[in-house]
Amino acid sequence: MDSSPDLSSSGLLHRAVGGVKQFLDGDQNQPAFDRVALRLYGAFPKQRNGQYLHEHWEQGNLLVNHIVALNKRYLNTSLSPQISPTFYYIRLLSNCAWFLYEKDNYHEAQTILVGGLDACEQLKLVSKSPEIDIIHAHMLNTSAILDDCGGRFDSQIEKLKEVLEIRKRVLPQDHEEISGVLNNLCLAYESAMQFQEALEYREKSLEVCRKHPKSMSRETKIQKRELVYSRLLLAMGQLEEAKKLFPGLSRYFEIIQNWYFIGHLYIIMGNYHFAKRNFQSSQRCFLHALKQYEEVGKATDHPQAAACLYKIGRVALEEGDLDKAIEKFREAIKRLQLIDPMNPQIGRINFMLGKALKRTGGDHTDEIGKLEKEIQVIVQRLRPQQDLSAEITEALLDSLVDGIIR
User: Fold this and answer.
1) Residue of 108, 213, 241, 401 with fewest CB within 10 Å of its CB?
2) What's the CA gap between 159 and 87, in Å, rounded?
């Protein structure tokens, strides 16, 4: 799928940027569009084998706004001449959508996906290449993950099943991307709190993984699925079974020095201690997780960093430190609102902030009223059928957020 030369050197990066500006400011013809798409594709970070792009964020930041501008031109059908997509263009948009998801810019990611999915359909009219289906599946997979972030779990599951169908049709039976989508279905069912289905897809994903030749990549994928399993066990109330997995997972992720998965693991470990009401250990775990995102990964705007702040606030609330709880809840909300003001996690945190404000005994009537209205707007958007005259409960709000923040 990825046979183009690596054009990511500094000089070619500047050429890619210059090419976009020249195209948008000058003669917007098809050959110029094709050259720009190829240069941007060569210079932009590429997601391979389901790997995250964290180490390439700086490079991506230099180009992403230019790709967004190019996509807007592609989608603007009122301008002449009409632009036809190329293989490099859909590859570029597939990588860019994933990059924007990682950077938590969900709105721009959705816009990129609109252009990318349309471009795939246009290319299918002139080519029967299975590569179009593969890239189409990549973009559908990203779209499904964005549904998870927005609490749209039914839509997420439907899209992932379509991705699975495409990949089974065009890829070998034991291809790693089939294992990947099976794992994503496990996560989707966990977010939807359908734990039996989540366990079934976990086993299917592991079965495919274990058929691959032994390698560090295979072992990492297996350990990632064990990480998800520990989260599932906690969600199902099997605390001690989950705890048994922590030492091995910690050793492995420390060996490969993956700050993202170390942070994820320590959130889960903090949840374990919180459930056991060992608040001191819980806070240590959440602080260590936060350090991974803020200091090691330099990803202060990562949604899991906001989840850490929220959970530190939960610990403080349980311990009666209301000032600290309120501070952490507000900081978590502030970070999430910068990315997506309608993120369902905000509704969950607003609820706990209101709870903390009520416990202070002070006059916070106006702020609490504002929080409750914001919660209702988020709930109404995600659950239009919800009777808002009834009490909004923690259980309802938990059903709208993915498993990591619960």
Assistant:
1) 213
2) 22
- Rg of the chain on CA atoms, in Å: 22
Structure tokens at 127: 């080519």
Sign of CA dihedral 208, 213, 215, 217: negative
Q: Is the pLDDT of residue 204 over 50?
A: yes
- Neighbouring CB atoms inside 10 A of 361's CB total 8
Handedness of CA 81, 82, 85, 90 (dihedral sign): positive
| DSSP of 278-314 | -HHHHHHHHHHHHHIIIIIS--TT-HHHHHHHHHHHH
Phi-psi region of 340 (alpha: psi -120 to 50; beta: other; left: phi over 0): beta
> How big is the CA angle at 331 (ends 148 and 286), to the nearest 5 degrees?
70
pTM for this one? Answer: 0.86
Collapsing DSSP to helix, strand or coil, 78 comes out as coil
* Euclidean distance between CA atoms 319 and 328, whole angstroms: 14
The CA angle 369-372-376, to the nearest 5 degrees, is 140
pLDDT digits (tens, 9 = 90+) for 3-35: 444 444 556 666 777 777 777 777 778 888 898
Q: Tokens representing 361?
A: 């005994």
Sign of CA dihedral 130, 134, 135, 139: positive
The Cα–Cα gap between 352 and 364 comes to: 14
**Torsion angles phi and psi, residue 402, rounded to 5:** -75, 170
pLDDT, one tens digit per residue, over 38-69 is 999 999 999 887 778 888 888 898 899 999 99
CB 146 within 8 A of CB 108: no
Distances (CA, A) of 178 to 134, 147, 213, 235: 11, 20, 15, 25
- The CA distance from 110 to 88, in Å, is 19
Q: How many residues does the chain have?
A: 406
For residue 63, the SS3 value is helix
From residue 272, give the alpha-carbon distance in Å to each of 237, 241, 268, 311, 329.
10, 11, 6, 12, 20
The span from the CA of 248 to the CA of 265, in Å, is 11
Whole-angstrom CA distances from 198 to 51, 228, 261, 294 are: 22, 10, 20, 30
